[in-house]
Design a protein that fits this description.
Layout lengths: L1 H6 L27 H10 L7 E11 L2 E13 L3 E6 L8 E5 L2 E5 L7 E3 L11 H5 L3 H4 E8 L11 E8 L8 E7 L5 E7 L5 E12 L2 E11 L5 E12 L9 H6 L6
Antiparallel strand pairs: 1-2, 1-13, 2-3, 3-4, 4-5, 5-6, 7-8, 8-9, 9-10, 10-11, 11-12, 12-13
Length: about 260
């Protein structure tokens, strides 16, 4: 069973930013703004509602060529709780449930949910950690370590660099280097490090518009261990949605093989 977990890409979407709603700032961040405030603003560009449905498409590239695509629906609510429905034909019926630092994989032919560890959720081309529990403002403490507001290159947006350290046992990565735009707090890129200190992935965030507001519409993950792999996650739809409590119960999910929401 764990061989299956190691081989099966857990492609969900780096979406699950469960945080309080913040008004995105259109003007420059104040000089005395704290790292915690910056992280909340950066999170808000990714997901602005505490309870949401996120429809995603994930494209996997091998050696620069498209290898496969997958579709997912992710249902989020506060306290780092999320349910992922696998929608592609080859994965139909699979579900992933995350409740804080507890994780279950539900297979269509299995009678019981499969409990997985925080380390196992990092496995795959786009890990569960990347797409469903990576919330900077809740899972990390931050420190501003560099202000690159003096950049003179006309094509470069001045940035702030923050150093993030995990504060929860189930955080996807032990540490993160995050760069945000100096004037708005929009996330530009992030370097994601494992507990060992090894750089695992580089994340690039692409800006777009959703319902008239600037948002992160695409995340590109560049694998730094398997350097021939790249993952592109497109957030096709993000809408407020309150899912019933019963769907956040692993026993219920195992007994009800078909969950159509």
């Amino acid at each position: 069973m764990f061989n299956w977990i190691r081989k099966q890409p857990l492609l969900i979407a780096s979406l699950v930013t469960i945080c309080a709603s913040w008004q995105v700032q259109a003007t420059a961040l104040s000089q005395d703004i704290s790292a915690a405030e910056i992280l909340s603003i950066a999170d808000d560009y990714r997901l602005e509602d505490a309870a949401s449905k996120v429809v995603t498409q994930v494209a996997l590239y091998q050696d620069g060529e498209l290898d496969k695509t997958r579709q997912y629906e992710v249902y989020l609510r506060p306290n780092r709780e999320s349910l992922v429905l696998f929608k592609s034909k080859v994965e139909q019926g699979q579900k992933m449930l995350m409740l804080g630092d507890n994780y279950w994989l539900v297979m269509p032919k299995s009678r019981r949910p499969i409990r997985i560890t925080p380390m196992q959720k990092l496995l795959g081309d786009a890990s569960v950690g990347d797409v469903s529990t990576l919330t900077w403002s809740q899972d990390y403490t931050g420190e501003i370590i560099s202000d690159q507001s003096d950049i003179t290159d006309a094509d470069s947006e001045p940035t702030l660099q923050l150093s993030l350290q995990a504060k929860t046992a189930g955080a996807s990565y032990q540490s993160i280097d995050l760069w945000v735009e100096r004037k708005s707090g929009f996330p530009v890129r992030a370097d994601l490090y494992l507990t060992s200190g090894k750089l695992a992935k580089k994340a690039l965030f692409e800006s777009g518009e959703r319902e008239g507001q600037r948002r992160v519409v695409t995340m590109v993950l560049l694998d730094q261990i398997q350097t021939d792999k790249k993952t592109v996650i497109d957030y096709q739809e993000v809408t407020p949605h309150q899912l019933a409590d019963k769907y956040y119960n692993p026993a219920y999910l195992s007994k009800n093989k078909r969950v159509e929401l």
